[in-house]
């Protein structure tokens, strides 16, 4: 029964760094490697809508960051063009709906921390022309636009360039992603934003006190904009101890966000990183840890997209009604992006 429900759902994954793994190959391998390595996983997991973030490793920063950003954006286009029977890179709501209607996976291009753009806010228009429709402005540490959550002690909001970036994103129709943004930065964005916000991969701080997670007040505030909070599956953000790296703990976070935000404002932002890190050649994987975190840790069964039906089964066991489950799995994200990308 749960598998039938999963197949009926528009399953949306709002954060999978697979572009890092694909772009590590020679360009002539991008489309076939995606078809061989990732497409079967996405199909088995039932993914219908996939947000693809562009994230650039420290090894490319600062000199090569913009070049690698453009390379990864090109990679996304090549993946779509080379697998046109299975996926479509979507620029607006109509294209997302068309892809889903044709049985294709709708790909939405995102940027994580605006790598390489620095404070050149005018380049946001450039990446929009290239297909970017979702973006955040910080990662773990400091950028010219804002501080990431790893710098919460600074208490800083957006820089003047960060404020300009938010305004430019709203003008262009790029969804602003608060995941990774420091607490003061989130508060600053909430003061200034005039369009709905999104957290592409953030769990609940009430259940796991980690700076990468959102407090209940932040979750409520994002929902109040009309936005959606998508729960991160990365086990270190779910529990402080490996004994808590379980499917039940993940479902606890999903149910908590649904309770705090409202059932219409929760989604899934898995952040499957183990395979990406194992698959990307050095220097990425030589020193991938942050603050002592094991980047290869996973919730058993959720090492990658093919495990997503397990989440549906767990939610069914919890007694989540079918209509609510369809919203959690991707209905909310589909609706949200449909409204944001008109």
Automatic annotation (TrEMBL):
One of its GO terms (molecular function) is dipeptidase activity. SUPFAM superfamilies: Metallo-dependent hydrolases (SSF51556). Keywords: Dipeptidase, Hydrolase, Protease. Transmembrane segments: none annotated. InterPro entries: Metal_Hydrolase (IPR032466), Pept_M19 (IPR008257). Its EC number is 3.4.13.19. This is Membrane dipeptidase. It comes from Nonomuraea africana.
